[in-house]
Design a protein that fits this description.
Mean pLDDT: 85
Strand content: over 45%
Number of helices: 1
Helix content: under 10%
Radius of gyration: 20 Å
Largest sheet: 6 strands, antiparallel
Low-confidence stretches: 1-21, 28-37, 273-284, 348-352
Number of strands: 35
Strand order of the largest sheet: 1-2-11-10-9-8
Structural class: mainly beta
Distance between the termini: 47 Å
């Protein structure tokens, strides 16, 4: 269709039970969106924080200028007519719903047709939502600036300093194989057994400002933050770098990718750099590091350092085709030899 389809805010509609009413916002179906309104051949032109690929193969990008969907041909800013908030996190749940965490406007649930907005008015712990996680039972967890929230489809249960956290600014949440939950906060990191929060320590020292936690295919837990990159294998902690690590990701082959501030002297292992052919600028302090899965048991694992020279690097994704996507100021794709920039005019940058 070629005529505009307006988005109506359907306030006062009860979608869930009384204890958790989300504001319902109807969005036009994909085929009814006028292409020149929000569909472009370029991606975000602002800071990109998180990237995922859904079950249909579309790539979703949470950025400060909206949530973008990339369908291999073009980018669509799906939130341009819904919210002007900066977006920080994105998740596809087991039902196929997409969750978008924002800074200041809570979280949005998108079913492909309409949006439901949840804020502190609905029970969410905070309106700055920096991480989203689905546990084995199908509960959705949100790390916010006001604590962690667990949503069971009907209501929120919140976890804050009152329940035992040292800091309400929650960066990351993950469930391990024993069904315990690991929390990274701006303060200490914790393990939650369903009743009690226990501070996570190594040699008596707590882990602080843990920004990213993942569980890999072998059920090891990885932590990245102020104290560098660490792996816990049920018995021992192993340190891989003392550099600040902002994001941790495992690819399909079991390689571990991180975004970190560059200081090669603090990287434990043999490493090779992959510099760009154009001159670095003052922002070139962050690198993508790939820890080879076959060498992770070695005292000196093999680490490849990729230097995009694009400032702070955030979310990392391995797409179905094997390309690595990452966020910085905009979104980028790395195919093993070149980096493609989708910001403004699409540019491919060759590596040495």
């Amino acid at each position: 269709m070629k005529k505009y389809v307006h988005i109506y805010i359907l306030s006062l509609i009860s979608v869930f039970c009384v204890s958790c009413k989300g504001q319902n916002i109807t969005a036009p179906p994909k085929e009814n969106i006028k292409s020149e309104d929000i569909v472009t051949f370029t991606g975000p032109n602002n800071t990109t924080r998180n990237i995922i690929q859904d079950r249909k193969g579309d790539i979703w990008i949470a950025a400060y200028d909206g949530v973008f969907r990339y369908d291999v041909k073009s980018f669509t800013n799906v939130t341009s007519k819904v919210s002007s908030a900066r977006f920080f996190s994105v998740l596809e749940d087991r039902k196929g719903n997409l969750w978008f965490g924002s800074i200041g406007s809570g979280v949005y649930c998108y079913d492909g047709i309409s949006f439901k907005n949840f804020t502190t008015r609905d029970g969410l712990a905070g309106n700055d939502v920096t991480c989203i996680y689905e546990d084995k039972s199908g509960n959705i967890w949100f790390g916010t600036g006001g604590g962690a929230s667990r949503y069971d489809g009907k209501s929120f249960r919140n976890f804050t300093t009152t329940e035992g956290l040292s800091n309400n600014d929650v960066n990351s949440i993950v469930e391990d194989k024993t069904e315990k939950f690991w929390f990274g906060t701006r303060g200490n990191a914790y393990i939650y057994d369903g009743k009690t929060f226990t501070i996570l320590t190594h040699d008596g020292k707590p882990f602080t400002n843990v920004r990213s936690i993942i569980a890999d295919r072998k059920s090891n837990v990885w932590l990245g933050g102020n104290d560098g990159l660490w792996r816990y294998d049920d018995y021992t902690f192993t340190n891989f770098t003392e550099n600040f690590v902002g994001y941790v990701y495992e690819d399909k082959e079991g390689n571990i990718w991180t975004s970190s501030q560059e200081n090669q002297n603090n990287v434990i292992g043999s490493h090779t750099s992959v510099p760009l052919t154009f001159a670095a600028d003052s922002r070139s302090t962050w690198v993508l590091s790939r820890y080879d899965e076959k060498s992770l048991s070695n005292k000196k694992p093999t680490v490849a350092l990729i230097k995009p020279n694009e400032g702070m690097i955030c979310g990392i994704l391995e797409a179905n085709d094997g390309n690595i996507w990452f966020g910085a100021f905009g979104v980028y794709r790395y195919d093993g030899s070149t980096i493609t920039d989708f910001k403004g005019k699409e540019v491919t940058r060759k590596l040495l």
